[in-house]
Write a structure and sequence with these properties.
CATH topology of the largest domain: Chorismate lyase
Domain HTH gntR-type: 1-69
Keywords: DNA-binding, Repressor, Transcription, Transcription regulation
Radius of gyration: 21 Å
Protein name: Trehalose operon repressor
GO molecular function: DNA binding; DNA-binding transcription factor activity
Pfam families: GntR, UTRA
Number of strands: 10
Strand order of the largest sheet: 4-5-6-9-8-7
Helix content: 25-40%
CATH superfamily of the largest domain: Chorismate lyase-like
CATH architecture of the largest domain: 3-Layer(aba) Sandwich
């Protein structure tokens, strides 16, 4: 077995045995070089594999943080509001509304929200605070024909609750895409990224039960706080 794989497996064994505390730092590259009597390149290969497999998160200027195995479960297959998620997590949570405006749909939004060019749409920019840390940035766009009015109070509470209970709309299904992206300046300004080098982005197109598309959202997550879970059932051919 190549040496970097031997080192990788040994580090995995130590991490899973709680040799180091969760959310603490792995030994530095220099210390690992001495510990395993090998080259820096070999250590970097092992660390890259640990990062790919979700054991560590490389933080610029700090080193490698051991990822907490008890991350918050974020259901990928369901359509869950932040208020419902926070209640399930049973943690103190709040929403900060940074922007609530009406914008004209450009070419990008035209295709993502299925509206006409320059048609007015709601733009809602919200930061989600969980247990004292700003860990999610939600960028939502709503078709104004479907959602004629929004207020800061509604956006701080739950837009979905307002749509379902006040407007009596039936939210039915969503198409989702999960990607890893470099943080934008907006991410770095509004989230407590603490040097993390990427964010997990869930892009969703959400439909009513009559199949009309009414929402496009980008939910941008700090990578160390969530694991994205799904339920799958095999169907025999």
């Amino acid at each position: 077995m190549q040496k970097y794989l031997t080192i990788y497996h040994d580090l995995v064994k130590k991490i899973e045995a709680n040799h180091w505390d969760e959310s603490s730092m792995l030994p530095s590259e220099n210390d690992l070089v001495k510990m395993y009597t090998t080259s820096r390149e070999t250590i970097r290969k092992a660390l890259n594999l640990l990062a790919q497999d979700g054991y560590i998160q490389k933080v610029r200027g700090k080193g490698s943080v051991i990822i907490d195995a008890n991350k918050f479960d974020f259901p990928v297959s369901g359509i869950v509001s932040f208020k419902e998620l926070a209640k399930k997590l049973n943690l103190p949570a709040s929403t900060i509304v940074h922007e609530l405006t009406i914008v004209e749909a450009g070419q990008d939004l035209k295709s993502k929200l299925n509206v006409s060019l320059r048609e007015p749409v709601w733009k809602v920019l919200r930061v989600r605070n969980i247990a004292g840390e700003k860990v999610i940035l939600d960028k939502d766009f709503f078709n104004k024909d479907v959602v004629p009015a929004l207020t800061k109070e509604i956006c701080e509470d739950s837009v979905y609750s307002y749509l379902e209970n006040e407007l009596e709309l039936d939210i039915s299904f969503a198409k989702k895409e999960i990607v890893i992206e470099d943080p934008t300046e907006e991410d770095r300004t509004l989230l407590d990224l603490e040097g993390y080098s990427n964010v997990v982005v869930i892009k969703s197109m959400v439909y009513l039960d009559d199949t009309s598309l009414f929402q496009y959202t980008e939910s941008r997550h700090r990578p160390d706080k969530f694991k994205f879970v799904d339920f799958a059932r095999r169907v025999k051919n």
